[in-house]
Amino acid sequence: MKKRSLFSLLVAVALILSAVVPVLAEDVIKIGGIGVLSGDYGKYGLAVREGVDLYIKQINAAGGVLGKQVEVIWEDTQGDPAFAISAYNKLVEQDGVVGIIGGVLSGESKALAEVSAEDGVPQITPSSTAYDVTTDRPNVFRTCFLDPFQGNAIANYMAQQGVKKVAVLYDNATEYSEGLYQAFKAKSDAEGVEIVATEAAPYGERDYKTQLTTIKNAGPEAVFLPYYGADAAMVLAQAKEIGLDVRFFGADGISDIVDLVTDKSLLTSLVYTDHFTTDAQSEKAVAFVKAFEAEYGKLPSISFSATGYDAILVLLSAIEAAGSTDKDDVVAAIKATDVSAVSGNITFDDHNDPIKSAFLLTFDAEGNKQFLDQVDP
Question: Which pTM value belongs to this model?
Fold first, then answer.
């Protein structure tokens, strides 16, 4: 009798636990974070993660969302679109996430967008600037501006500064660099800025002197350089070596160049577009910079920390507004977003792109970023 009673008791406890565990699980809202977190481009994904994690810490301390705590489960794509799809399937099917922050690079984000669109899972990329990431995908959004916008902004700024002849050095095999070049070329043509030389070299090249010599011989007043920071750092150093003394213009991928340049004075010749500046004076921006520095002991030098913060802010604000994690309701709430965020006020257009400004920045001789101008949409 005692053994039977003990067995019955154990069965009863097991039944109670089986009922309680799902309830406990439902007290946490799970979000998937997908992006490159290692390798050459890992710094961009890590910047996104720092911004996202900071907001999660703040929102949980304030009581969470819909009375529940929020958890972000991160997956490293290593920059491979195939890994991004595997991460998505794992997060959705096994972990039960209700939304995705990511990807980071445009290639992985497009791969993610294709599979998330089939399921209708809300997806917000903080940093993918390629135009077609959101095309025909009503569930996919972004908190960064697009390549056409920043390519136009750079060409327009050159024209305003009186530049008449420009050269281009870019990677014609990479969507990011190619997209920026095409937008820049179209706007330059429209503004009467002549492109006197167009040279190409792949990311990761170590010697750009052949291309730079051709550019020097063409006599430009400026060079457009749609590369990431590591490549741009080598270009600036090698341009000085061959006596190419012109202004260089880049896009958001160059933002991490400071720590990659030994001679900081080279940076005074560089102007680039960015999603955020630590000199921004809005209440949200000032509070973000202060909180970020307190949390990580550094300034958010890569602007994707700010757009990552904004991406999770938009997603969780939409869940709160929807009153549930139902994917259709959340997507509709994101579409209706009108929120004051760190990188500016965010609303979305018909292409699910944010209607927001870009910042033009340069550097002083010590490598400190300097605000030049704001470009409004």
Answer: 0.84
